[in-house]
Amino acid sequence: MHELSMTTQIVDSVLEEAKKQDAKRVTEVHLVIGKLTFLGIEQVRFAYNILVKDTIMKGSKLIVEEKGGVIECPSCGYKGAIPCEDDPTYHVPIPTLRCPKCGKSAKILEGKECTIRSIKMLK
Amino acid sequence: MKGEEVTLEIEPGTDIMEVNKQLAKKNIELLRKHNVTAIDIMGSIGAGKTSLIEKLVQMLKKRYRIAVFKGDLTTTIDAERIGRHGVKVVTINTGLECHLDANVVSKAVERISLQDIDLLFIENVGNLICPAEFPLGTEKRLVIVSVTEGPYMVVKHPFTFMTADVTVINKKDLADIMKVDTEQLKKQVKEIKPNMKVAVTNALTGEGVEELIEALEL
User: Residue B128: which CATH number?
Assistant: First the structure.
């Protein structure tokens, strides 16, 4: 949904880091995108290629690693992948915060992040 | 241009979402310092956000000193509607942006005196998706859906409901005409988040709004 503005921030952060390191070129950027964000990877790639055009990031490889959602239950301590329930009315899988162990509401622990894991650059 | 290739590991990683999260934290800290309870109101275009706020303001203004932030793309129509009830309204025109974020809310906070209010309703831009990604720094988040949006609003947007504390199912008077079962919607919301509080309302008449006020612990 906000791929362009998010990718702009990503590119800006990478360029800032590259400047700090006195790099001549950036050759690779490794991103981690949580599955519980509203970011489409295809759209991130699309925006990335446009944004890096006139920068030292031009031609750099973009690696996107997807990270699944993890929940933690404050009531019973359960921790694990976000479960999906089948909705009996429409038979679609719906992700749920219902703790599979005790049935109470769990909290999202992982999956809402969008982070730069590493950058490869030429000095 | 040959050079030494260096891999820079960024630990623990720069979270691009972090900027908004930090600003949201600042907002809630400032509001708490002044004992102001803020509630973010999210929902699609036409779900009844403004009508609901009007009713909440009418029913609560004797007990609380209320201000309303009104996210709107370009106009002040809604601000005028709410302003008629004698509460302070700040319009946040987002231009083309489809959601409010913690930064624009912090700017709006500067335009009111927090010591003069107890309760702040923040009406987000009409959109059931984007606002969910951007916490504003409120005590509670409310999401409102109406039966005129059809029967699939909940199952199609589970992540939006996960970020909310209270759900309002509005326009209950039209449920039969729309062939939408409000009990079914309620069940789906509870399936996504068992501790969700749900109120079924008609925001125009005020039916169910008393239950909502209870759900909001106001």
Answer: 3.40.50.300
Q: Answer whether B192 touches A (CB < 8 Å).
A: yes
Domain region containing A42: 3-68+111-122
Nearest-angstrom CA–CA distance, A21 and B89: 48
What would you report as the CA-atom Rg of chain B, rounded to the nearest whole angstrom? 19
Strand order in the sheet with A114-122: A61-67, A25-34, A114-122, B5-15
Return the closest-CA partner of residue B47 out of B110, B160, B163, B125: B125
Please give, rounded to a whole number of angstroms, the shortest distance from the CA of B65 to a CA of chain A. 32
**Domain range spanning residue B164?**
36-215
Residue B156 resides in a domain: yes
Q: Could you give the 3-state DSSP secondary structure of residue B194?
A: coil
ipTM for the predicted complex: 0.80
Q: Flag whether pLDDT at A48 surpasses 90.
A: yes
Percentage, residues of chain A above pLDDT 90: 80
Taking the C-alpha atoms of residue B192 and residue A92, their distance in angstroms, rounded to an integer, is 13
Chain A residues with CB inside 8 Å of B186's CB? none
Looking at the fold, whether A45 and A13 belong to one and the same domain comes out as yes
Number of domains in chain B: 1
